[in-house]
């Protein structure tokens, strides 16, 4: 099952038997609106705080994923999730509601593929019949924690990103007709010494390239194996840096289509999002909504999702630390 130094091949090819996506009103104004299951009309989603709203959309996405799979909570062995709040409270409180055995994760915005990869590992080894994985973010709660509160109204530089309000969840099983999780490459920490929380795309780009290069090396394949390779939330600034690094490392990404979830979810001409999108919910809702739908429609056969995460916190920033980054890659294919 271990392939090379940091990759897994899933011989039993766990199936993504259901997905669910829940987003906020701003995401519903973007080009991927038709790919989301629920679009809320206001950011509070009926709650009395941003943090409770974030938890509410995670609970909703998890419940919807179970409904789409025709499963009850008691039929699912494990729930793997994480988020950006202190002590991953959105995920832990969702686990309290679900009462499914819980494995909490923190990979910042890479958590979507971290949870999917580990869920696939568990299912592939017959460690569970059904595993639920997911993650979420909320613009107002995350911006308040990692940048400035929304109410502060501060101006942002062009390198800054806009946190997605969204939650995505998926159920995996050895049963099902796909799409299938066929492999994963777990990333290592890459820290290039950047300290600017308003330029996380630049900080994360080297980690994304490092994981993609490791994936190709471990599996002895090239970019042309995939119809589409998508990074998590590098957005415009990080995407351009990644393209430069691919060229520097002689990785022929021109042989496939390369894009970024942070550049797909919003309309740059109509929505003021600076460099693009970020947040745990970014790659989760784009993958479990837009990309999975394209696979199911037969438009894509092989896709590599490379979720990226900036592993900083207010504490490390205040202590003058740089931003360690990571990326996890998961291969999703339409056929076994």
Features:
336 residues; alpha/beta; 7-stranded mixed sheet
Write structural notes for this entry.
This protein is an alpha/beta fold and 336 residues long. 33% of the residues lie in helices and 22% in strands. A seven-stranded mixed sheet has the order 1-2-10-15-14-11-12, with helices on both faces. β5, α2 and β6 form a beta-alpha-beta unit.
Task: Tell me the overall shape.
Answer: globular
Estimated structural class: alpha/beta
What radius of gyration results from the CA coordinates?
18 Å
The oligomeric state of the chains shown is single chain
Q: Which runs of at least 5 residues are low in confidence (pLDDT < 50)?
A: none
Query: Mean of residue pLDDT?
Result: 96
Amino-to-carboxy terminus distance: 16 Å
Topology:
Layout: E1 2-3, E2 7-9, E3 15-23, E4 38-39, H1 50-68, E5 78-82, H2 89-98, E6 102-104, H3 111-124, E7 131-137, H4 139-146, E8 162-163, E9 166-173, E10 180-185, H5 200-219, E11 228-231, H6 235-248, E12 257-260, H7 261-264, E13 277-278, H8 280-296, E14 302-310, H9 314-318, E15 325-333
Parallel strand pairs: 3-4, 5-6, 5-7, 8-13, 11-12, 11-14
Antiparallel strand pairs: 1-2, 2-10, 3-9, 7-9, 10-15, 14-15
Helix pairs in contact: 1-2, 5-6
């Amino acid at each position: 099952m271990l392939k090379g130094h940091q990759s897994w091949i899933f011989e039993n090819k766990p199936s993504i038997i259901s997905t669910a996506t829940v987003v906020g009103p701003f995401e519903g104004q973007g080009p991927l609106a038709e790919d989301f299951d629920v679009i809320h009309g206001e950011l509070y989603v009926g709650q009395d705080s941003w943090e409770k709203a974030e938890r509410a959309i995670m609970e909703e996405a998890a419940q919807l994923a179970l409904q789409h799979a025709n499963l009850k909570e008691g039929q699912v062995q494990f729930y793997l999730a994480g988020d950006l709040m202190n002590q991953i409270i959105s995920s832990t409180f969702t686990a309290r509601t679900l009462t499914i055995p819980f494995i909490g994760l923190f990979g910042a915005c890479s958590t979507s593929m971290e949870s999917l990869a580990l869920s696939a590992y568990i299912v592939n080894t017959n460690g569970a019949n059904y595993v639920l994985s997911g993650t979420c973010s909320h613009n107002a709660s995350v911006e308040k924690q990692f940048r400035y509160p929304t109410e502060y109204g501060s101006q942002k530089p062009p390198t800054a990103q806009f946190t997605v309000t969204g939650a995505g969840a998926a159920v995996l099983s050895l049963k099902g007709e796909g799409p299938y999780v066929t492999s994963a490459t777990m990333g290592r920490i890459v820290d290039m010494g950047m300290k600017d929380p308003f330029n996380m795309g630049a900080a994360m780009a080297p980690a994304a390239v490092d994981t993609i290069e490791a994936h190709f090396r471990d599996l002895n394949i090239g970019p042309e194996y995939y119809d589409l390779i998508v990074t998590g939330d590098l957005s415009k600034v990080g995407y351009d840096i990644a393209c430069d690094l691919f060229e520097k490392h002689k990785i022929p990404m021109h042989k496939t289509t390369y894009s970024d979830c942070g550049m797909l979810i919003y309309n740059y001409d109509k929505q003021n999002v600076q460099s693009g999108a970020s947040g745990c919910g970014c790659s989760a809702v784009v993958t479990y909504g837009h990309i999975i739908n394209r696979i199911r429609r037969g438009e894509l056969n092989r896709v590599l999702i490379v979720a990226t995460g900036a592993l900083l916190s207010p504490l490390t920033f205040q202590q003058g630390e740089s931003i360690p980054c990571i990326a996890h890659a998961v291969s999703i294919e339409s056929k076994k």
